[in-house]
Amino acid sequence: MKNLVFFLCLFTIIFSCSYEEDEFNSEVFEGDITFLTQQEIDEFGNKGFTQITGNITIGTLNSSSTLISSLNGLRKLKSLNGNLIIQFNDALLNLNGLNNLTLIEGYFSVVGNSKLINLEGVNSLSAVNGSIYIWKNKALTNLNDLMNLTSVGRELFIGDNQELQDILGLRSLSSIGEELHLSDNTSLQSLEGLHNVTSIGSFLYLGFNRALVNLNGLRNVSSVGGFLKVRENDLLEDFCGIQTIINSGLSNDYEVFGNSYNPTQQDILDGNCSG
Predict the structure, then answer these.
(1) pLDDT, average across residues 223-244
(2) Residues near 97 by beta carbon (within 8 Å), at least 6 away in sequence
(3) Which CATH class is domain 26-269?
(4) Nearest CA to 220 among 250, 200, 190?
(5) Fewest beta carbons less than 10 Å away: which of 86, 107, 138, 168?
């Protein structure tokens, strides 16, 4: 009788632990997932996943737009082991629903969302271990909701966002593992927001930012691991923000042309950093 009671208790404990483990594991979605409709996002949200081990794609990969207008179904998501791709969603105005997401292990891509005004919803995101691509969002005006982002493991690419007026939302960012690429942001006047960045692992490219007038936002960058190219920024006449980079010794190619002022490295070393 005592043996029977012992085994019943043991079975109860094992079953309880197994149930609790299954219940915990149920919060983790294994693999990749693609959302093409609002209904798919809403139904996914009802399952309460807090972690996804693969990639999330919201929208299409071929430039045909979806009608997805809300990401609230992802509101319990805290971490993503893969990539987060949000692209070609013409009804999406913001990223509300991603408010609890703190870490993206892969890359974060926001591309071709024609009505996206801001990135509201990613205000808890502190690290992207891959690259960030913010490209061709023609209504996007600022990056304010990236205010808690401290590191980008690989490339930071911000391009062809015609209404982007400032990047002040990047003010917590301190390091970029590989390339900083800013191009074709025709309303961008300043790089303030990058003022806490101290190192760029590989390349620095600034091109075709027609309203950019100075590089002061780069004043605390002490090293660039690869080439530095600044081209065809029509109003750019003040390069004093890269004095520290040049004074530290740029070991790779330096190309500056097509701007309002085009100093050589020697000009900057001599203190002639603005036109």
Answers:
(1) 96
(2) 41, 70, 71, 72, 73, 74, 75, 121
(3) alpha beta
(4) 200
(5) 138
